[in-house]
Design goal:
139 residues, alpha+beta, two-stranded parallel ribbon, 4 helices, elongated
Length: 139
């Protein structure tokens, strides 16, 4: 995991989640964080790390093969950029937030260039459209 960029992006995501929870009157999305460094980031370590940003964040990792598979599926780039010296090495990676609908379908993605406000507004728009489509579909 990246200890430089990720914290600012996780802070941003925390702001989005808190704003959406306030606007929606309770939990409305489930944020997930997936580590691309399963060698260093164990399940307990990732779980503890994400709780520093928001109590509802869920941290995930897996085997190297599982991480490679999910990264390929979502076109996430990652590579070690320094030689390993114990746990002292850097991993370069894409920094993207994906928005999925409740069925797990891709809706949109947000890069570092999006502000928390922009992500919140776009997510609310998608949530409204999703709820409207479900109401139409249930008639």
């Amino acid at each position: 995991s990246s200890r430089v960029i990720c914290p600012s992006e996780l802070d941003k995501l925390s702001d989005v989640v808190s704003k959406l929870d306030t606007i929606q009157g309770g939990p409305s999305i489930q944020p997930l964080f997936i580590s691309v460094d399963p060698k260093r980031d164990t399940v307990p370590r990732v779980a503890s790390y994400v709780k520093e940003f928001h109590p509802r964040f869920i941290g995930l990792t897996g085997t190297q093969e599982q991480v490679q598979k999910i990264c390929q599926a979502y076109r996430v780039y990652f590579t070690k950029v320094t030689e390993e010296m114990g746990e002292d090495y850097l991993v370069d990676h894409s920094i993207i937030m994906y928005l999925m609908d409740p069925e797990g379908n891709f809706v949109d993605f947000f890069g570092k260039n999006f502000t928390a406000e922009e992500i919140t507004i776009r997510t609310l728009k998608y949530m409204t459209e999703y709820k409207a489509s479900k109401r139409r579909g249930s008639k």
